[in-house]
Amino acid sequence: MDLVATITANWNYLIVILLMMGGLFIVISQNNMVKKLVGLAIFQTSVFLFYITVGKVAGGTAPILMSYGKAAYSNPLPHVLILTAIVVGVATTALGLALVLRIHAAFGSIEDDEVLAMKADAGMPRSKRSRSSDPDGSDPDGGDPA
Amino acid sequence: MSIASIIANLPALVVVIPLLLAPIAALIPISGAAWLVAVIGSGGALVSAFLLQGAVSNGSSFSYHLGSWPPPWGIEFVVDSASALTVLIMAALAFVATLFARKALPAEINEKDIGKAYSAWLLACGGLAGLVMTGDAFNLFVFLEISALSSVILIALGAGTDRRALVAGYNYLIIGAVGATFYVIGVGFIYAVTGSLNMADLAARIPDVQQDTVIMVGFGFMVAGILVKAAIFPVHIWLPAAYAYAPSAVSALLAAIATKASLYVLARILFTMFAGVPDVTALALEWVLIPLAIAGIFTGTILAIYENDIKKLLAYSSVAQIGYIALAFGIASTAGVAAGFIHIGNHAVIKGGMFLAVGGYFLALRSRVSLSAMTGLGRRMPITTTGFLICGLSLIGLPLTAGFISKLYLVRALIAEDMIIVMILVLVSSALSVAYLWKIVEILWQRPEGEEAPLHGGEAPALYIPLWILAIANLWLGVAPTPLVDSANRAAMHLVGGL
Amino acid sequence: MRDNPVLRTAAKILFAPIIVFGLYVQFHGDYSPGGGFQAGVIIAAAFILHGLIFGLEAGRRLVPEWLNLAMLAAGVLIYGGVGVAGMALDGLYLDYNVLLPDPSAGQHVGIILVEFGVGLTVTSVMLALFHAFAGFSEDRFADKPEDTAGGGSQ
Amino acid sequence: MTVFVTNMLLLLFLVFLLVLVIRTRRLFAVVVLAGAYSLVSAAMFVNLDAVDVAFTEAAVGAGISTVLFLATMAYLPGREKVLPSSGRFGNNMSAAIICVIAGALLVAAAVELPAVGDPNAPAHLHVAPRYLEESYSFLHIPNVVTTVLASYRGFDTLGETIVVFTAGLGVLVLLSGYTRTRRTRNETLSRGEGDDA
C-alpha cells in the first residue's frame, strides 16, 4: 500500500495519536500536580477519540434504529466502551483533585519536587512555616537522631 | 434462591458478594458492624472460591455467561484451574487480612471513617477477584480501575499516620491511570483488526490477522499497561511508597494480593490471548520479561538491604519476589509457569505474614516502625516476632518452608530449560536476601543501649492470631506442598500445556 | 450571590425544567440518546445550581449528607439487586430475560431499572463531589499542635 | 465527504488547544483550555455519529471535570511554579523521548489499520451486526447503544457504576472525612522518642 494512500486514508488516526502523545507528554514532563491531572484528562480523551474513529462507518448514521428501513449505522460497540471510559476518567480526575487538595493542606505546595523533598514531619515550605520546632528534620533514610 | 442456583452462579458470587456489600459497609457508622460486613464479604468470596476450586479440580474449565448472553456478544467469566487457583489464594489472604483489620484499622483511621474504609477494602477485594475471573478484555480495564481507585483510597487513609501517604496515593493514581490507558490503547488496536473483545474469541482470531504490526503494537501496549499494574521493574516506582505509608492492615492486603492479580492477567495475555502468535510472545518473553524480572530481583534485593524503614524494606523485597514470579512465567515452559503459580501462593503467604507482624509492631509501638525503633522487640513481643521469623525464613527459602518449595521448583524449571546463568543469578539473589533478613533479626534480638521505645498494651491476640495462621500456612506449605503444587501444575498445563 | 433577586428568581424558574429534562433523558434513553449517566449529571446540575445560588447550607438542608450517602449506596444496590433478582429467578447474574414471563418485556424492565440505578448513583456522586469540594476547609485536616489527640487513635 | 472535512478542522483545533495547554503557565487558563478541549472533542463525537458519547462527554467530561478543577483552583496558587530551565529541560527531554517512541510505534500500527470509515472493516462485521439486528427484532429498543450498554455488556456498566461509587466514596473520605494528617514531629502517636522515618 503506497504511503500517500495510507496517509489520506488514515490521517485521522495519525492526528489522534499526536494528541495522545501530547497528553502523555504533559503527564510525564509537568511538575505541577494539577497540570499532570489535566494532561491525564487530555490523554484519556484522545484515546476515546481513537475508539470512536475506529467505530465510524462512512455514510453511516448514529446507531439509533429509525423506522424508515435499513440505513448504514456506525458501530455501537466503541460508543458503549467509551461511555464507560469517560466516567472512569472523570472518577480518576475527581479522586486526583481530592488528593491534590489534601496534599496542599498537608504540605503547603502542589509541586512534585517540593513535596517529594519534604519528610514526614519537616516544616512547611516558606509559605506556611509550621509551629513545630523541628530542629534537625533529619533525612528519614539516614541516621537515627536518638 | 435454591442451592442449585447458588452453585450454578458461583463464579459471579466470588466477585459480586464483596462488591455489593461495599455500599452497605459504607453506610454503617459503627466500626464493629462495618468490620462484620467486611468479614461476611471476604468470607463469602472465600467459600465461593473454595467451591469453585473444587469444581475444576479435575482439570475441567467452564465459562459463565453474564446476563446469559453468549460470548463474544456478552461478557463471560472463565473458570479454569488457573483462575480458580489464583482467586482462591487471593480470597484466603483477603479473609485473613480482614481478621487482622478489626483492631488494626481503627487504631490508624478515625472512628467515623471506618465504615467507608471497609467499603473501599471490599471494593479492592472484589475488583481484584473480578480482574482474575473476567474473560473480556475491556471488562478487565473496568476491574483494573475499580481495584486501582479503591487501593488509592486505602493508601491515602494512611495520612492519619504519615502525611506522605497522600503523595504515595497520588503517584499510584497517576501511574496506574497511565498504565490502564496504555492497556486500553492496546485493546483498541486489537479490536480494530479483530472486531472482538472476548479473550477466547481473540485467541482464535488473532493468528489469521494479516496486519502483524498492529498485533505486535497492540500486544506491546497491553502488556506495558499490565506491567505497570504488576509493579515489574522499571515501572515499580509507585510500590515502595504505597506499601510503606498505607495503614498496616492495607499494606498486608495489597502486598499479599494486589500485584498477584496483575501477574495472573499477564500470564493469561501471554499464554491464552496471544498463544496463536508464538513469535510475538516469544520475543516479548526473551527480550522484555526475563531481563526486567532479573533487573527487578536485584534492584529490589539491593535496595532492601540499605533501607531503614521496615515497611519500605519489605516493599522492596516484594519487588524482588514479583521479579521471581515474572521470571518463572518468562520461562514459559509448563514447569516454569507452574513455578510461577506456586510462588504466587507462597509469596502471598510469606509477605502477608511479614506485613501483619510489622502491623503488630506498629500498633504496639504506636509510631512509625523504623529498624532503630524495633531494637530488642524479640524479647518483648515473642509471639509476633517468632511468627515474623517463620515468614522471614520462608522468604529466604529455608528448607521445610514454603519459600524453599518455590525456589526449588523455579530452579528445577530453569535447569530443565538449561538457563544456567539465570539459575545462578537466582541463587545469588536469594543469598543476598539473607543479608536484609539477618539485619532485621540481629536488631530484633539486640540489647538496646538507649532506653527502649515503650510498648502500649503488648501483644493483642486479635493481632497475632492472623499472623500465626499465615506462619503455620508457611510451614504447612513447606512440609506438605502437594495440594498447591498439583493445582499449580494443573494451572500450568491448562495455560501452556495446550490442554 | 444569595441576595441578588434576579439570580434567585431565575434559579427558581429554572429548577423545574432542568429536573424534568433530566428525568426525560433518564427514562427516554431507550428511544433517543441519553441514559443514566447523562440524566444523573443533569439532575445533579439542578441541585448544584441551587447550592450555588442559595448557599451550601441551604443545599445541605435540601439534601443532607446521610441522604446523599444513602442514595449513593442505593444506586449501586439497585443495579446489583436487579442482577441478584436474575439469579434468584434461576437465571444467571444480570439475566433480564427471566425477570418477566416475556423475555423481551423482561429486558425492557431490566434496562429501565438498571439505568435508574445508574442515574441515582451518578446524581448523588456529583452532588457529593460538589459539596465536598465547595465545603472543603484546610484547617479541618491541619494537625494543630495543641490538639494533642490529633488523628489516629483518639 | 463533509464529515471528514469538519473532522479535520476539529482535529486541528484540538492540536492547537493542546499546544496552548502545554505552553500556558497560569493554571486557571489551563483548566479552561482543558474544558474547551473536552467540548471540542464532544463536537467531534457528534460528527462521528457517537451522539450518546458526545452527550456524556459534554455533560461529564467538559461540565463536571471543569467544575471540579475550578473548585480545586480556589484553594491553590494560581500560577504553576516554573522550574529552573535545567530541571525543566531534563523533565521535558525524558518525557519527549518516551512520547516519541510510543508515538512512532502507534503510527507504525495505525498505518496498517483499515481505512477510517471503511464499512467492511473487521470491527463492524464480527460482533456489531447482531447488536443492530437483535436490538430491533428481539428487544424493540431503537437506541442500540443503550441496549448494549445495559443488557449485552451490563456487567461493564455495573463495574462502571461501582467506579463512580468508589470516586464518590474516596472524595467523601478525603475531603469531608475525619482522619486528620499527622504532621508535627513530637505529636507521633506514642510519647516515646520521636522517630524520624
SSE order of chain B in H/E notation? HHHEEHHHHHHHHHHHHHHHHH
Sheet with the most strands of chain C? Answer: none
Give the CA-based shape of chain B. globular
Number of domains of chain C: 1
**Structural class of the secondary structure composition of chain B?**
mainly alpha
Q: What is the total number of structural domains of chain B?
A: 1
- Largest sheet geometry of chain B: 2 strands, antiparallel
Which secondary-structure class do the elements of chain C indicate? mainly alpha
Helical content class of chain B: over 70%
Shape of chain C: elongated
Task: Give the terminus-to-terminus CA distance of chain C.
Answer: 40 Å
Blueprint of the fold:
The complex is a heterotetramer of chains A (146), B (499), C (154) and D (197).
Chain A lengths: L2 H27 L3 H23 L20 H32 L4 H6 L29
Helix pairs in contact in A: 1-2, 2-3
Chain C lengths: L4 H23 L8 H19 L1 H7 L2 H24 L14 H32 L20
Helix pairs in contact in C: 1-2, 2-3, 2-5, 4-5
Chain D lengths: L1 H22 L3 H21 L3 H23 L11 H28 L9 H4 L2 H10 L6 H9 L1 H22 L22
Tell me what you see in this structure.
Chain A is an all-alpha fold and 146 residues long. Chain A has 4 helices and no strands. In chain A, helix 1 packs antiparallel against helix 2 and helix 2 runs antiparallel to helix 3. Chain B is mainly α and 499 residues long. Chain B has one domain (3-495). In chain B, strands 1-2 form a two-stranded antiparallel ribbon. The model of chain B has no long low-confidence stretch (mean pLDDT 89). With 154 residues, chain C is mostly helical. Chain C has one domain (5-135). Chain C has helices spanning 5-27, 36-54, 56-62, 65-88, 103-134. In chain C, helix 1 (5-27) packs antiparallel against helix 2 and helix 4 runs antiparallel to helix 5. The longest helix of chain C is centred in the C-terminal third of the chain and has 32 residues, at 103-134. Chains in contact: A-B, A-C, A-D, B-C, B-D, C-D. Chains B and D meet through helix 2, helix 5, helix 6, helix 7 and helix 9 of B and helix 4, helix 5, helix 6 and helix 8 of D.
TL;DR of this structure?
The complex is a heterotetramer of chains A (146), B (499), C (154) and D (197). Chain C is mainly alpha-helical and 154 residues long. Chain C has five helices and no strands.
From the structure above, extract its key features.
heterotetramer; A: 146 residues; mainly alpha; 60% helix; elongated; C: 154 residues; 5 helices
